[in-house]
């Protein structure tokens, strides 16, 4: 591994390797890029570990045409060390260990001051945003000066990246960075959905639709809260073994059923689960998740990314049965305020991170890591820069 940072870079344009996407579905090209120094209220970070999330996969495929912008550096799950800070940054300094976050927290806007939301007015997640907030320009460029667009406030598929101050979270330097990268998205999103959005109670029943990294993080969160029954739902039978190792008490493969999925779950949970979580990005699964909850109080939390133009598959009158549905972004965590303490809980073993990292590869093999995710063989492949 290269040195953590080089003092000679401070305030200068530096050249480093990045995995650049030049068009939808094309292999990422490992090439040299130029990275500008951080401007006012920005930090430049040396990325040490990064992994691939399904949101990266969706962007790579170009499934949302409105979010297409090329060339672009994807990536939003990572951990690294601050190389330099821009004017006005007072809560971080060179050498600090940080986690990039795709939905930031400025700390000053009406939303950041409210306990009712974790969505910042200026730095909330926006897949259409391709430049920095400060001046609307890119901090990446090719060697001949062509701008390279940013992704989800982070762009971590690069040896160095520039972040708005609101999108970098300082963590305990004793925390293992190779595991802390998971808190940038998947684990925080799933555990937070169970803890913050749903507020799962001890003894309650849960159904999780889609057992990828986010779904299994929901299971970890529900297990930590003392849920009595955690039903995992997936069409991949291999997910049963992994799921049971991470908190799932029961497993259902919809392909094995002769009755509607929600009817089966209602039978298993004596009338329906207290909480269901849709983590697959499938609208049919969302409807089944909604109908699998108990009448009167069932809560469905939407976590999956839905690039399809299809609308919610619900009749308005179905909401009068007492069931509720709500979306959750980043598990309801306020990144800069709450993530440091969540990282401490993970270090204490309240949430186990080890099972999420199924593969490790050098950064240069990023296309192989994408293929592992597409083939359903990995939860998270940790890339070492």
Key features of this structure:
385 residues, seven-stranded mixed beta sheet, six-stranded parallel beta sheet, alpha/beta, zinc ion binding, globular, Rossmann fold, alcohol dehydrogenase (NAD+) activity, Quinone Oxidoreductase, Chain A, domain 1, GroES-like_sf, S-(hydroxymethyl)glutathione dehydrogenase [NAD(P)+] activity, ADH_Zn_CS
What does this structure look like?
- With 385 residues, the protein is α/β, with parallel strands linked by helices.
- It folds into two domains: 210 residues, Medium-chain alcohol dehydrogenases, catalytic domain (Quinone Oxidoreductase, Chain A, domain 1); 143 residues, Rossmann fold (3-Layer(aba) Sandwich), CATH 3.40.50.
- The protein is built from nine helices and 17 strands.
- Strands 3, 4, 5, 8, 9, 16 and 17 form a seven-stranded mixed beta sheet that branches. Strands 12-11-10-13-14-15 form a six-stranded parallel beta sheet, sandwiched between helices.
- Strand 11, helix 5 and strand 12 form a beta-alpha-beta unit.
- The termini are close together.
- Its cofactor is Zn(2+).
- Keywords: Metal-binding, NAD, Oxidoreductase, Zinc.
- It catalyses: a primary alcohol + NAD(+) = an aldehyde + NADH + H(+); a secondary alcohol + NAD(+) = a ketone + NADH + H(+).
- One of its GO terms (cellular component) is cytosol.
- It comes from Cephalotus follicularis (Albany pitcher plant).
